[in-house]
Amino acid sequence: MSGMRTKHMGVCGVDAAARTQTALGSETSPSGLPSPTSIFHYHSQKTISVRGPDVLLLCHGITWELQKPYIQKSHTLASLLQHSAVSSATDSDIPLISLPLSDSNVTRSALAKALGLLYEDQLSVSPDEVIALLATASLLAYPELEMECCKVMVKCINAHTVSTYYTASVKYKQSAVQESCERWLQLNMVPHLSLVINLRELPFELLEKTLLSSRLFTWNEYSLFKLISHWIFLQIHPHIQMMPAHSFIMTYFQQYVSILELSATPCLQVGILGCPRQSHFYKRKRQYPTLCYCLINVMKGML
After folding, report:
1. pLDDT 10s digits, 156-171
2. If 0-12 CB within 10 Å is exposed, 13-18 middle and 19+ buried, where does residue 165 land?
3. Rounded CA separation 100/123 (Å)
4. Could you tell me which of 112, 88, 165, 129 has the C-alpha nearest to residue 6?
5. What is the Cα–Cα distance from 171 to 60, expressed in whole angstroms?
6. From edge to edge, which strands make up the β-sheet containing 85-86?
7. Range list of H helices, the chain
8. Cβ contacts of residue 235 below 8 Å, gap of 6+?
9. Can you say whether the dihedral through the CA atoms of 208, 211, 215, 218 is positive or negative?
10. What CA–CA distances, in Å, run from 135 to 58, 167, 240?
């Protein structure tokens, strides 16, 4: 894409210097990656070359040149257009609409691609940009792009993505992705997620929900104990870049055992994470009462 040339069509009556400061960046950013405007023109250039823009969108510090028939795919832009005013930067009747941003997930590159995809019938989304595009699609109220993002996320759930995908699915109200993440965790939290540093990204509420699920797969009771201890250790040490050995983590927690050793009996009166006495977790916890009680108190003190 770096060798791509964009064909820029003039906007009738728009001051060239003003447009250079906004919409006309270089084809590549200082990092060597394609600029937002070049990304947008890559997807929309076939239409742009046939007809000029009849809508100006001011968003993310860039003036985007759009066409009315295509922005109808975005409910947000279509609604803004209905209440738009004529641009003061043009001598013609081209309306200018402004879209404020409050979501840091909406990057310039994601916005450029989402606006460019308004001009395409087949949408393409890669896993490395899916969260930014989902955030942008949600902002634009662009249902086709939202659906495509969700399809990609469901296909790409793994130990490295499940936590971020789940958080995004909750934020942008994508129940299908949320349910897929929960099902993946029920089967894979112990055998896969517990082995990688991405375990630290798992939200406490989701950890608790998965532990309480009757569908949770585990090798044995001690595997759950290891998972919980690793998760707590990673919350206490957020700057660690590699998953420590289990023996190292156990050595770290031994310092708390002597402090709470006399509290072992009371700990048997409550289940792990507040589960009732009759819970299957209650039975699992009895095998490691002192250290489990320590870990639960550390967890509660942190959250």
Report:
1. 999 999 999 999 999 9
2. buried
3. 25
4. 112
5. 21
6. 62-66, 55-59, 95-98, 85-86
7. 16-22, 36-48, 68-71, 75-82, 108-117, 130-140, 143-155, 162-171, 175-188, 204-211, 221-236, 246-260, 264-267, 280-285, 289-302
8. 200, 299, 302
9. positive
10. 18, 12, 29
Secondary structure (DSSP) of 25-41: --SB-TTSSBPHHHHHH
CB 150 within 8 A of CB 176: yes
Q: How many of the other CB atoms lie within 10 Å of CB of 1?
A: 10
Mean pLDDT of the chain: 78
Nearest to 35 by CA among 13, 61, 16, 70: 61
Instruction: Spell out a b/e string for 26-39, using b for 16 or more CB atoms within 10 Å of the CB, else e.
Output: ebeeeeeebbbbbb
Q: Which single residue is written with the structure tokens 């006495």? A: 277
Q: Tell me, what DSSP letter sits at residue 245?
A: P
Instruction: Classify the phi-psi angles of 273: left when phi > 0, otherwise alpha if psi is within -120 to 50, otherwise beta.
Output: left
User: What are the pLDDT digits (tens) for 282-299?
Assistant: 444 444 444 555 555 555
- The length of the chain, given as a count of residues: 303
